[in-house]
Amino acid sequence: MIRRPVSRRGFLRGMAQAGAALPLSALLHRSALAAEGGGVPRALFVFIPDGCAPELWHPSGDTYNFTLPRMTDPLESVRQHCVFLSGLNMYSGGSTHEGGVAKVLTATGDISMDVFIGQYFKDQTPHASIHLGVASNHQNGSGYMSYLGSGQPISPEDNPLSAYERMFGPPGGVEDIENRRKLSVLDAAMGDLNTLQTRLGQAQRQKLELHMESLREVENRILAADQAGAGACSQPDWNREGWTIPEGYNSYPKYHDRDDQFATVGKLQMDLAVQALSCDMTRSLSLQWSHPVSPTHLQPETGASQRHHDSSHFDASNLASAENFVLYKRWFTEQFAYLLRELDAQPEGDGTLLDNTVIFLCSELGHSSRHDHRNMPFVLAGRAGGLETGRALDYSSAHNGDGETHAKLLVSIANAVGIPINSFGYTGHGDGPLQGLYA
User: What's the angle, vertex CA 405, arms to CA 399 and CA 406, rounded to 5?
Assistant: First the structure.
């Protein structure tokens, strides 16, 4: 077990958890961050299904002067926030869809990186890690990307209303949460403190009183800081359209799993992810769009005439499938661009939430038709850990042209949020972080 010294913020947050409800704890912690003028590093993992066509995904050109092809050019508007990675392979472990999704965040180890980061910071946030999905459980026979341990996959929460309630409490409880926010944490614990005072000698009582006065001063500064932001945490403005599940709906598939709800649910989950990270509900969050062998059909949104997985089986003799697959990948990268813009729109400390977050866009296959795990469609974004963005990095020449292991990328992500590891899972091509990402 990893143990760390308790900070002033940690002590206050512990008092908040002991004396009030969970949302109040999150509010105080977020206000403390704002009061100190900074932010904490976070990690966000985003999965899109069924790989890519590498020649239509990876940039052409050099490190700083590159052109995005059709599948990724929706990211042109946010390229300054991204690092486009090519030449990374996933080695060992299982093959095809099932093997790929099982190792994309584990690198053939037992635990996935999103869970690993969450466990590292679990004593500092209300939730260790949060796992959201968009129809990720619907007809899923191919697996999930998050693992609590060996053979223990985590099923994401696909219903945004349920996800909201787990994080922020019942939707109808906003007024009560707002009232609790106004309460003093010290006042809530005063009964216990008074009892403690009766058991202490005079010198110890004086020390306790001085300590309580100091805590009161700190508490007042925290509660005065960033009140607008604190209000946003007690009343998250994430479901602006009032999306809900029709009363009495009891059909298959579940309402939130339906194709005609896919885009709406996805936006809600992205907005909720931004809110959760902004309120410091967790330091690690994953969002899984559908799943490998995705049955999703987004005809109105993309114009595609096939389901997602069917279109991924493209070849030179099936140009219609190839075009449909391009349409799907463009739609998914458009969603990723939206997510980055929303993170960048959230002020935090002297910058934005994007400045304090590392975001990993991933899939379970490299070349979709070949079902391989080479030249994976990976994009890194955000500036946590000092990531130099606005670049395209090619690792295909590593190891005598064999390419580099993606396990080193996972090490780099852990390092970016302040976890000092040198290996994670697979080490057949060496250990350490991925060279060139960070100064």
Answer: 155
Residues 6+ apart with CB under 8 A from 142: 97, 98, 101, 291, 292, 293
- Tokens of residue 41, six digits: 């590093």
| CA–CA distance, 281 with 421 (Å, rounded to integer) | 24
Please tell me the predicted confidence (pLDDT) of residue 219.
59
pLDDT tens digits along 92-105: 999 999 999 999 99
CA distances from 367 to 218, 375, 385, 437 (A): 55, 8, 30, 24
Structure tokens at 32: 């403390």
DSSP 8-state symbol, 430: B
Give the whole-angstrom CA distance, residue 59 versus residue 364: 19
| C-alpha–C-alpha distance, residues 328 and 49, integer Å | 10
CATH architecture of residue range(s) 40-159+254-439: 3-Layer(aba) Sandwich (3.40)
Tell me what percent of the residues of the chain surpass a pLDDT of 70. 80
- Kindly give the interhelix angle for 174-181 and 22-35, rounded to the nearest 10 degrees: 50
Q: Where are the domains of the chain?
A: 7-36+171-237, 40-159+254-439
Q: pLDDT for 283-301, tens place per residue?
A: 999 999 999 999 999 999 9
Q: Is 50 exceeded by the pLDDT of residue 334?
A: yes
Which pTM does this prediction carry?
0.82
343 within 8 A of 351, measured Cβ to Cβ = no
**More confident of the two residues 234 and 53:** 53
Residue 365's contacts (CB-CB under 8 Å, 6 or more residues apart) are 50, 51, 52, 96, 97, 100, 292, 371, 372, 373, 376
pLDDT digits (tens, 9 = 90+) for 352-361: 999 999 999 9
Radius of gyration over alpha carbons of the chain, in Å?
23
